[in-house]
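Researcher: Batch entry, complex prediction.
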Amino acid sequence: MADTGNAVKPSSSVKLVLLGEAAVGKSSLVLRFVNNDFQENKEPTIGAAFLTQKCNLPTRTIKFEIWDTAGQERFASLAPMYYRNAQAALVVYDLTKPTSLIKAKHWVAELQRQASPGIVIALVGNKLDLTNDGIGNGADGDGAGSDDSGDARKISTEEAKTYAEEEGLLFFETSAKTGYNVTEVFTAIANAIPETSLKTTRGPGASHAAGRTEEQRVNLNGPRDPNAKEGCAC
Amino acid sequence: MESVSDTSWDVVICGTGLQQSLLALALSRSGKKILHVDPNHFYGGAEAAFSLQDAESWANEVSAKDAGLFRSASVARHESAAGLSSRSYSLAMAPTLIHARSALLSQLVSSRAYRQVEFLAVGSFFIFRLPQDSAQQPALIRIPSTREDVFAATTISSKAKRGLMKFLKFVLDYQNPPQLELWQSHAEAPLTEFLQQEFKMDAELQTYIVTLTLSLNGKITTRDGLAVIRRHLSSMGVYGPGFAAIYPKWGGLSEVAQVSCRAAAVGGAVYMLGAGVQAVETAGDEVKLELSSGDTVKTRILVRADDNPSEQTGISRLVAVVGSPLTSMFEVVVEGASRPAVAVVAFPAGSLSTPAGKASEYPVYLSVHSSDTGECPVGQNVLYLTTLSTPDSRQLLEEALEAFVGTAGEGQPAQILIQIRYEQLAGSGSFQPEGPVITFPSPSFSLSFDDSVLEPVQQAWKRIMGDAAAESDYMSFADREGAMDDDDVYE
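Model: Structure tokens for the complex:
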């Protein structure tokens, strides 16, 4: 995410939630996107994690507020709290594990039923490095879960892509391990967020309302003036 | 994975209302094993925020059970509202304002939970004024909000302005010796009486001042009233020019409760919705709980909230969605201020009457929320009306709503798309720690966040932490890795 140094671009926050079965690589995708890093044998996420990352588009800056949820959550009671008011969701499956796509489809259905009406959903098949697609796989190809043939793919690109098209989802196959397509997912989401959901269009004055959302937000972290002028009347 | 029944919990918290959720936040880094359950299928308890569908199922549930703190709930959609998208709404059960000087905000900042909440400015306070004679129309009069405003105000006589200025100067220093004498003999008397006797304020000016206190019965005492006015004035400008209070986007305190629960989940707390505590059995230093999910769990401490109405006092509420932007309610009145998303209108006692001609005994407060709050689609507003319950209160809320849409609509009355009505009762009201079972009081009715709500939470935290409790650590956390500051560089 190189900053072009363009300081006057409007900036907006976008709440994004990651959903998917345990161990499909949700946290690894976020870690790759936020820190450009990868950890083998990462511990499962407890509860959830919150991270932020900026994404620079030609005309604006999107600050992603990312909620990375735990895939092994037991009572399905947490997810609603994370996708509430979310503008984007990344539903992840492991393309070497067919059950994970079934779970992903459940999440998509739940989001379509329960989340904000305009939510942008991206379906992401992760662990592309475990296939022999010839892109993004590490030279040794011995990532966790790979078999000896070098191609552990169980879900074809076409199958997932067709489903994504039917449901109106963005679709990507990624490798958090090599970084292949990871930034592309987030950039595509940033581009797909409707401009209208980023700013407040209110009647008069709406034409110059770009970036209004950020202006309107009260910053609690600003210099809280302990001696704020107290001379104001009622 | 260990099942909930096999785990020996340190704390089971029942209910995800504001207090229970803040406790979960306070314990989020304690290393304690926390199970947080809620009998409802939604977060926030009495402070929840609902989509239209949620509101409808909640109202049905309330009508079906006739227990707990809520009564007589109903949702009505106007025929033109049939096609509204249910999830475009986030209607707040507790549309509470938070003054900038509230300790809640300092706790949200020190606990870092504020990073996930968007706050919006609360703008002007208005008074609904009946016409003086039949030729006039009823009007909404904005209460002057700055010193300059008072000077510029055309609705106040210059004599009254002097009285008002004198009072404002007094309030800022009211706890110190010369001023102290002036009010102490009036401490328990109504504020209005004090304003009249010591500042010679007329009824209208008294109403301005009482409106700023948001006193539900309009009879706030001098002691409490001065404290609230002092807080209002000292909150002005703290987070930006022209406003004293803020409001969390997406449903007020509901959002604060959810952000707190999320923080607790990040810390490892386990969440179960649709699971209430059905039976409690204390055995030695352990509590055995039967959950409505069928699980039996063991815990050292149980925290829950009082939901048994002990007295029949309560409030009547009416939530109305109107299909008009009501732009005039959200004007920026101080240069450089951000556009407010919330405005408050007070209908003073006596300014409304029932069709049978009975005048209102208590004020009605109406909070106008623009679509910027995320509570309704663009071009609409949510109106939250509150008054103390009386046999006439529901009728009076209707009257207030009608009077407001007739006065504030731009040219023509705003169309009312949705109406939700309910009664909320008070509980037994006090914090009860009994051995391993801690019971929080029922939710406060206060329209502006009352810091006393925070006290039981901290006391519960102390009991749970025992010797490990150091006051200075309370709600004081570092940012978790990855959650960076707005000003940080991300590259």
